[in-house]
Amino acid sequence: MTKPGEKSAQTRRSMSPTIDMAVIPVAGHGTRLLPATKSQPKEMLSVGRKPVVQYVVEELAQSGIERMLFVTSRGKHSIESHFDTDESLTQYLRTTGREELLADLAFERKAIEYFYTRQRRQLGLGHAVLCAESLIRDQPFVVALGDSIIGVHAQSDIVQRMKELFVKEGVDAVVAFEEVPREEVFRYGIAQPKDGEAETFELADVVEKPSVQDAPSRLAVAARYVFSPRIFQMLHATPPGKGGEIQLTDAIRQLIQRGHRCLGVRLRPDEPRFDIGNFESYFQTFVEFALADREYGPALRQYLLARLVKPSSPPE
Ligand code: G1P
Fold this sequence. Notes:
With 316 residues, this protein is of the alpha/beta class. The chain has a single domain, classed as Spore Coat Polysaccharide Biosynthesis Protein SpsA, Chain A (Alpha-Beta Complex), CATH 3.90.550.10. Helix content is 31%, strand content 21%. The chain contains 11 helices and 13 strands. The chain has a 9-stranded mixed sheet with strand order 5-4-1-6-11-8-12-10-9. The protein binds 1-O-phosphono-alpha-D-glucopyranose. The site of 1-O-phosphono-alpha-D-glucopyranose has 14 residues, from strand 11 and helix 9.
């Protein structure tokens, strides 16, 4: 029963604005991927045929996001160029009779608007999101980390599910989580669920990069978030945390502590998160996506099978 003065879930739904804007932080230096990232953004590293960030944008577009706001930093121009239309390349492919390659550039013409702002000082992920405040203003929005792909070839509707939950429940945050091995919890924001660890759960707390002993669970923040603009108030009040940086996780924690509801959603087993932040997972992701390539995947599989039974040369 809805109490007088309260809005029913249905009214809230019909009043709720469409969530069609995503903030994509891409300002990090990518130091764990040097020298590959010395003069190119890690988000532009290729995974199979496409740069990481193209998968992120395609995943978001599938979930109804039409406006992408990148929070960039020095040396990230190639991201902007990648999403620009390149008329001279199109013309060149036409005049040289290679029209069939135009299909690979179809993403340039999608009805998506791109915005770019710079994080001028590297003060952390929370600070990067805060850089988007004056453009987002009073709308709910998505945050998608630009170095993480969800699902093989980004075939995931996690953001759509999160948006629906956000609107239905009228909460201030919905965060995606993925179960990780206990020895890896120190790399992530970790959830403390309030009421069990079902597919969707209420957050009692969330802790940025806890030690293995202190971690409240094995559910790790998985690079996708939906927020109400209230997150900006929390970010303004968030002091530097882990690593001396303003952490987005700490701002979510503040939301919870001040009595605002935040929910977690688990990624499904068929939509793993691929992290391009370090070489180990970058190599694995590349192999996974190359094996799933329709044209070259089967041959690569044969090659690897043959290659793995031969004695290998010592690593560099
Ligand atoms: C960031 C977040 C962390 C999250 C991770 C993966 O960490 O701070 O909470 O678990 O992304 O989504 P980073 O990988 O930037 O150190």
